[in-house]
């Protein structure tokens, strides 16, 4: 049986160790907390300090940066990017290739479409159809 971790060197020359998550084989950095019922698909990276709640699904090629929070049953589609310190609420759906900026907040139950960008510190809430609600 192969090893259950991968060592990767970052831009600063530090070597970070990532373990492979049991559900999906995505890479989880030391210091990240991912609920056992969550799915992190192969090719996804979850950085240190991240918290992923029960039932969440992180798609292929997703990058969740440090200290982000992914709520229960949230769905992050393939190749999305969740910036550092961002918070994704329960049952949120994030589309393919969508960018969520640093410290952004996406409200519970929101639907964010494909190829969208949520700016740094932005707070977003949508109705079930994905129409943005007034702040």
TrEMBL record:
Keywords linked to the UniProt accession: Repeat, Transferase
Highest taxon of the lineage: Bacteria
InterPro entries in the cross-refs: Hexapep (IPR001451), Hexapep_transf_CS (IPR018357), Trans_hexapeptide_repeat (IPR050179), Trimer_LpxA-like_sf (IPR011004)
PROSITE patterns (UniProt xref): HEXAPEP_TRANSFERASES
UniProt keyword Transferase present: yes
Pfam families: Hexapep
Coiled coil ranges: none
Database matches in PANTHER family: ACETYLTRANSFERASE
Protein name: Transferase
Organism lineage: Bacteria, Bacillati, Actinomycetota, Actinomycetes, Micrococcales
């Amino acid at each position: 049986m192969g090893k259950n971790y991968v060592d990767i060197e970052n831009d600063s020359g530090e070597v970070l160790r990532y373990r492979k998550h049991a559900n999906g084989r995505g890479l989880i950095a030391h210091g990240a907390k991912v609920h056992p019922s969550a799915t992190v698909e192969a090719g996804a990276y979850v950085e240190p300090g991240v918290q992923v709640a029960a039932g969440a699904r992180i798609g292929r090629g997703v990058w969740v940066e440090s200290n982000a929070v992914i709520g229960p049953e949230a769905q992050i589609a393939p190749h999305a990017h969740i910036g550092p310190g961002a918070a994704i609420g329960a049952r949120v759906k994030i589309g393919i290739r969508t960018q969520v900026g640093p410290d952004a907040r996406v409200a519970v139950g929101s639907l964010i479409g494909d190829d969208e960008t949520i700016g740094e510190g932005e707070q977003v809430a949508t109705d079930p159809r994905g129409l943005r609600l007034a702040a």
